[in-house]
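Propose amino acids for all 307 sites.
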């Protein structure tokens, strides 16, 4: 990645994660100062980010053949990104794909290291607030308008909406499913008490839509549900916090939220923000058609004295 006089790199190089690499690619697409990547290089990087397992297993020669370039081209690309060579670049993918076996203990260790740093000026709680603000800013910057529009249209086309989020992601799924119910379509929020996911998803059809939220380390049932739905021809929308997530393989449309922080839990403000973006787009597209289903909801609230 070259720099011209007066240009300062907009992102740290080499990137330390696939999320960081994705931000470099996005900056390259926007032709930001300090980011000099050609269209072929950007296409190669995007393909590798969308297929991280493939990127970890292939040799430099095999990956070069796949993209119709020489091995030396990939080496030069890795060096422009700040790596010593292609092996160091490929190691980034291998680390990300391998992460997850000891997620909670590793995150707790990061938190302990952070809270015992000499010269720390903020409480852990205020530090968490700062991390979430950065997560929200990064999530907003990474949103792709075309993908958001495609998700909106998929929601509007679907006969029935299925929203899935298990364990720590259930809150996001419940929030999104609850407010999607206001638009007048039947909505099933999966994975509630009783854990009857197999029964709940058994009747899903290609006319429906599955929206699945999951974060590292992914819940295996969420991945399997996405695989099963995609195998039946059902369009799947994924909401994840990293580009190596296994559910992205099954997503027709993939949304991303940054959920970073040195905690034993995944910060999820970014996931909620993306859910709100989808809800706002759907509401704007429906316009006046929202009035009748909203009126029916309000009548139920009034009859039951809920509000």
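Proposal:
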């Amino acid at each position: 990645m070259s720099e011209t006089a007066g240009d300062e790199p907009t992102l740290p190089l080499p990137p330390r994660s696939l999320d960081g690499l994705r931000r470099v690619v996005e900056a390259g697409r926007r032709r930001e100062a300090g980011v000099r990547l050609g269209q072929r290089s950007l296409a190669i990087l995007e393909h590798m980010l969308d297929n991280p397992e493939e990127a970890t297993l292939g040799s430099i020669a095999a990956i070069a053949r796949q993209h119709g370039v020489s091995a030396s081209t990939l080496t030069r690309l890795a060096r422009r990104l700040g790596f010593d060579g292609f092996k160091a670049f490929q190691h980034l993918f291998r680390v990300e794909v391998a992460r997850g076996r000891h997620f909670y203990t590793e995150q707790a260790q990061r938190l302990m290291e952070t809270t015992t740093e000499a010269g720390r000026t903020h409480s852990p709680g205020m530090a968490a607030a700062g991390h979430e603000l950065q997560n929200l800013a990064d999530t907003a910057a990474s949103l792709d308008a075309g993908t958001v529009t495609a998700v909106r249209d998929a929601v509007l086309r679907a006969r029935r909406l299925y929203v899935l989020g298990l364990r720590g992601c259930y809150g996001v799924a419940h929030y999104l499913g609850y407010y999607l119910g206001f638009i007048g379509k039947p909505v099933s929020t999966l994975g509630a008490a009783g854990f009857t996911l197999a029964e709940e998803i058994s009747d899903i059809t290609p006319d429906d839509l599955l929206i699945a939220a999951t974060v590292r380390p992914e819940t295996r049932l969420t991945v399997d549900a996405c695989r099963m739905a995609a195998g039946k021809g059902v369009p799947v929308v994924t909401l994840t916090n990293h580009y190596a997530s296994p559910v992205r393989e099954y997503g027709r449309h993939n949304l991303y939220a940054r959920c970073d922080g040195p905690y034993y839990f995944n910060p999820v403000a970014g996931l909620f923000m993306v859910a709100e973006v989808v809800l706002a787009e759907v509401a704007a597209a429906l316009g006046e058609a929202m009035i009748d289903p909203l009126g029916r909801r309000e009548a139920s609230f009034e009859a039951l004295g809920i509000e």
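The chain has two domains: 18-98, 141-304. The radius of gyration is 21 Å.
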